[in-house]
UniProtKB/TrEMBL annotation:
Domain P-type ATPase A: 172-269
Alphabetical UniProt keywords: ATP-binding, Magnesium, Membrane, Metal-binding, Nucleotide-binding, Translocase, Transmembrane, Transmembrane helix
Enzyme class name: translocase
Main localisation: membrane
Residue ranges of the region described as Disordered: 1-57
Alphabetized InterPro entries for the sequence: ATPase_P-typ_cyto_dom_N, ATPase_P-typ_P_site, ATPase_P-typ_TM_dom_sf, ATPase_P-typ_transduc_dom_A_sf, ATPase_P-type_domA, HAD-like_sf, HAD_sf, P-type_ATPase_IV
The protein's name: Phospholipid-transporting ATPase
Source species of the chain: Compsopogon caeruleus
Coiled coil: none
Family to which this protein belongs: Belongs to the cation transport ATPase (P-type) (TC 3.A.3) family. Type IV subfamily.
Length: 819
């Protein structure tokens, strides 16, 4: 699935310069609301204000504040973080509470205390305290283990809190001062250097690149190694492009109150210029998360908006409940069964002892208590506990000791296993929670995404379909045929000065323009200083831009306002009028440009299901759909490309609406999507691209081994159904002899009928093959939504339990998360 991020700026109309004046709030073209006098005074006092009755709180962060506003910034939490489980004052109470909520520990504590009571204990030697001593050993071992694990967390926290960073400061001789992460506060302006981690949530004010583009790596946050693009707003970076200007510029940021939404940020920044204010909208592309790392950018200046426990990263780290392993749960159950028997036996014996005591000939036995004393209620009641101690050996206390020793041994084994090392990085395995090492043999299901997990995430352009003709690039002789032409036949014709200019040529030219313009790629100098390397958050985009470059449509460079394409030895400049970013909901990206011919065009690429539904009527798409299906069967990732030419007057009106939507502080995503939808319709289809993403080495063998171990495999992907099935077969998720059922419906009744048929088929096959047949299931995202409806959920779960392998295709990120 395409994962592109890019610059999302409209030229000119995003900027607002206005005088500060009292009065009621008004709305201008940028969408930034001019506050009323009451609101303005409240905002200047700092803190949080509300934009409406049901709207979220807004945080105000002052930039280079005076003394009063600095105090407002300081009331937010510090950037000190702690992930430890215990603290010095709650260590013993919390630990003992957790230990004695375990049935086994509570049981042996009760037994040990009863042995100490003279009227109850059957043992009067020093051995009566053996249970308490043994329990103490168990508790001490668990205490040492918990403290050791928590000390490791404490050391990790200290290393993070003491990590160095640089802060701009107006006091002192040095304007750029060294500090630690723990001493960072809201409102601080930090200078983040290349390959340095970001210590807190920040808004970018300026960066080293002329075009205002910075690259970050989020591997520590989401495991993705692809670089993400972040941008600074030109009208903001002009004020912060040097240290002196950064220290003298005053203003404030209004943004969302801290929340756990990792991929969302809305706000506005106000630059104070005497009696004037410059208000500009902020979005996620101007926002840096704590924990991400700056790459391929010399430095970034940013102002801190969230610190410590209020950063998005820390708000997504929930206090971990005590994890109880399967062994603990089963042990508690096995303790409870003999404990129940023990209670029953002791109760019976206590009742019998009282009812029969008067009939026993003990009056002449001086060493027994006399009946009047021995048969009273209290002695009989205490005798119940004597019997309880006699039967206490039914539950072995040594089992707890052996389990704790085994856990420690397993932890050491996992951490020191020489075969569990990533050879490419040298990373060793690490058991961070010893209680869960016993879970390794209890795994029944493995859920995996495709891109970057099963595949190498190295995209290579293979084929395309333009004008109903399939072209291949860098294919071997076996892959080429009369149905697949070398792509050079298309590109060479477009570079011919005497070409006819027919519809086929126009479509081909627009196809390559989409590839060279509609992306968030930025060229970087290669190691040799001569070559150019394309960088992007999406490897798909790098593959497409590289292919376009090889065919003579070379993306050369970009600035905040223009993108340059080298073609036929000369450079073409395209004015960037707007960029509508890709996201997993939209599944498309659009770039609006004014070309050398002064025409305004919208270039769009995205999922074929989305693009084909937005085309202008009257276009023949049968051949394109066939080609898309053929590419998917080969396991190739497909993207559809289209464009639209718009009238200048219409675009001017649209750009104003789009600027207003982008300037909204609340519900910005919905408003932007509504306006963006207007311009991304009535498109003209130009072609389809097909990209290969090969499986990583060892993936098929690994998945087959997991299935042989009785583990069910679930592959979750956003790819087309045909592509997902092909990946399932090539990765070893499906076998050739496996009975594969495809459920693809459009409503609840249809889904219910399909599930019933699949259950009936597999039940019959299980009888015929005596349970030897293996089953596979393929389901798309829309059908999965219906299958998880309350009336179908139980049936669907029963079906998936019968399947050894499941492939979910066309899934949204939210569905993958819930699966």
């Amino acid at each position: 699935m395409l994962d592109a991020e890019g610059t999302s700026m409209l030229a000119e109309v995003d900027r607002e310069v206005r005088p500060s004046r009292p009065g009621t709030g008004v709305q201008d073209l940028s969408g930034a609301r001019v506050p009323s006098e009451t609101e303005a005074s409240a905002r200047r006092r700092g803190g949080r204000a509300r934009r409406g009755g049901n709207e979220p709180e807004v945080r105000k962060v002052w930039i280079n504040p005076d003394e009063d506003h600095a105090r407002e910034n300081r009331r937010f939490p510090t950037n000190y973080i702690s992930t430890t489980k215990y603290s010095p004052w709650n260590l013993l109470p919390k630990f003992l509470f957790e230990q004695f909520t375990l049935f086994s520990n509570a049981y042996f504590l009760a037994v040990g205390c009863l042995y100490a009571v003279d009227k109850i204990t059957p043992v009067f030697t020093g051995g009566r305290y053996s249970t308490l001593w043994t329990l103490t050993v168990v508790i001490v071992v668990a205490f040492v283990k918990d403290v050791w694990e928590d000390l490791n967390r404490l050391r990790s926290d200290r290393a993070v809190n003491r990590h160095a960073t640089r802060r701009l400061a107006q006091d002192g001789d040095e304007h750029v001062q060294d500090t630690t992460w723990a001493r960072v506060h809201v409102g601080d302006i930090l200078r983040i250097e290349k390959d340095e981690a970001v210590p807190a949530d920040m808004v970018i004010l300026a960066c080293s690149s002329d075009d205002g583009v910075a690259y970050i790596e989020t591997k520590q946050l989401d495991g993705e190694s692809n670089l993400k693009v972040k941008v600074s707003i030109p009208d903001v970076s002009d004020h912060f492009d040097n240290i002196q200007g950064a220290l003298e510029t005053r203003g404030y940021i209004d943004c969302e109150a801290p929340n756990e939404l990792m991929y969302r940020f809305n706000g506005s920044i106000t630059i104070l210029q005497g009696e004037e204010e410059v208000v500009l909208p902020l979005s996620y592309e101007n926002f840096l998360l704590r924990g991400c790392t700056l790459r391929n950018t010399e430095y970034v200046l940013g102002v801190v908006v969230n610190t410590g426990r209020e950063t998005k990263l820390m708000m997504n780290i929930k206090p971990a409940p005590r994890k109880r392993s399967t062994v603990e749960k089963k042990t508690s159950y096995y303790y409870f069964v003999p404990f129940t028997m023990q209670i029953v036996f002791c109760s019976i014996l206590a009742v019998l002892s009282r009812s029969e005591c008067r009939r026993l000939p003990i009056r002449d036995a001086w060493y027994f208590a006399q009946p009047d004393e021995n048969c009273a209620f209290l002695p009989s009641f205490l005798r119940f506990f004597t019997y309880f101690l006699t039967f206490s050996s039914m539950i072995p206390i040594a089992l707890n000791i052996f389990i704790e020793i085994a856990r420690v041994f397993h932890t050491i084994q996992v951490s020191s296993d020489g075969d569990m090392i990533d050879e490419s990085t040298g990373t060793k395995s690490e058991a961070r929670t010893s209680n869960l090492t016993t879970e390794l043999g209890q795994v029944s299901y493995v859920f995996s995404d495709k891109t970057g997990t099963l595949t190498a995430n190295r995209m290579v352009f293979k084929k395309c379909s333009v004008g109903g003709v399939v072209y291949g690039w860098d294919l071997d002789d076996a892959a080429t045929s009369s149905k697949v032409l070398p792509v050079e036949k298309l590109s060479s014709k477009l570079h011919d000065q005497n070409r006819s200019g027919n519809l086929e040529d126009v479509i081909g030219e627009e196809f390559f323009k989409v590839l060279s313009i509609c992306h968030a790629v930025v060229p970087e100098p290669g190691p040799d200083g001569q070559s150019v390397i394309y960088q992007s958050s999406s490897p798909d985009e790098v593959a497409l831009a590289t292919f376009a470059k090889a065919q003579g449509f070379e993306f050369a460079s970009r600035s905040n306002k223009e993108i340059f394409v080298q073609r036929d030895g000369h450079e073409e400049a395209y004015e960037i009028l707007g960029v509508i970013d890709f996201d997993s909901t939209r599944k498309r990206m659009s770039v609006i440009v004014r070309g050398p011919d002064a025409k305004v065009k919208v270039y769009t690429k995205g999922a074929d299901s989305v693009i084909l539904s937005r085309l202008a009527p009257g276009q023949s798409l049968n051949k394109a759909k066939d080609d898309i299906g053929a590419f998917a069967v080969e396991g190739l990732r497909t993207l559809a490309l289209a464009y639209r030419q718009v009238d200048d007057a219409w675009f001017d009106q649209w750009s104003k609406r789009y600027a207003e939507a982008r300037g909204s502080l609340t519900d910005r995503e919905r408003e932007v999507e509504v306006v963006a939808d207007e311009i991304e319709r009535a498109l003209t289809f130009v072609g389809v691209t097909a990209i290969e993403d090969k499986l990583q080495d060892g993936v098929p063998d690994t998945l087959r081994s997991l299935r042989q171990a009785g583990i069910a495999i679930w592959i979750l992907t956003g790819d087309k159904q045909e592509t997902a099935i092909n990946i399932g077969l090539s990765s070893g998720t499906f076998d050739e002899d496996m009975d594969i059922v495809i459920i693809n419906e459009h409503d609840v009744p249809g889904t219910s009928a399909q599930i019933d048929r699949a259950l009936g088929r597999w039940t019959a096959l299980a009888v015929e093959t005596e349970g030897l047949k293996k089953y596979g299931l393929v389901i798309d995202g829309a059908t999965l939504h219906f299958a998880l409806a309350p009336e179908l959920e139980t049936k669907f779960i029963n079906l998936t339990r019968m399947a050894k392998s499941v492939v979910g295709c066309r899934l949204s990120p939210k569905q993958s998360l819930k699966s």
